[in-house]
Amino acid sequence: MDRIALNGMRFFGYHGVFPEEKKLGQQYAVDVELHLDLTQAAETDDLNHTVNYAELHAQVKTIVEGPPFNLVEALAGNIASRLLDAYTSVNAVTVRVTKPHPPFEIYFDGMTVELYRKRDEHEQQRPAGR
């Protein structure tokens, strides 16, 4: 399976369980990998046979900079679901969200959540009527 990856996207968001996280916010790093067949795009050199990464970036930005989530897991899950809904040619998506500065007196490069979601599993989890 082919992949399109956008790595190191940076956005400012207000996610977290603690009130100061929702008030002060911080930067988040997001990596997204889309798993899809890129044969036609490679053969035709036609944007209509792939995913426009500028649009992909805009979708992720809207989510990260939008309404806050308590958990990074929920933020990553929302990104994965939205991308699978938006791009029917995508068979699976991997989303990594790194929160570089959790509000603790510990020192590390941040915490990262990585989710892998497949289209067939996503379709089964959708609420009825969608």
Automatic annotation (TrEMBL):
Coiled coil: none annotated. The keyword Cell membrane does not apply. Gene3D superfamilies: 3.30.1130.10. One of its GO terms (molecular function) is dihydroneopterin aldolase activity. It catalyses: 7,8-dihydroneopterin = 6-hydroxymethyl-7,8-dihydropterin + glycolaldehyde. SUPFAM superfamilies: Tetrahydrobiopterin biosynthesis enzymes-like. The keyword Lyase applies. Pfam families: FolB (PF02152). CDD domains: DHNA_DHNTPE. Residues 4-117 form the Dihydroneopterin aldolase/epimerase domain. Its EC number is 4.1.2.25. Pathway: Cofactor biosynthesis; tetrahydrofolate biosynthesis; 2-amino-4-hydroxy-6-hydroxymethyl-7,8-dihydropteridine diphosphate from 7,8-dihydroneopterin triphosphate: step 3/4. It is an enzyme of class 4 (lyase). Keywords: Folate biosynthesis, Lyase. InterPro entries: Dihydroneopterin_aldolase (IPR006156), FolB_dom (IPR006157), GTP-CH-I_C/QueF (IPR043133). Belongs to the DHNA family. Catalyzes the conversion of 7,8-dihydroneopterin to 6-hydroxymethyl-7,8-dihydropterin. PANTHER family: DIHYDRONEOPTERIN ALDOLASE 1-RELATED. This is 7,8-dihydroneopterin aldolase. It comes from Paenibacillus plantiphilus. The gene is folB.
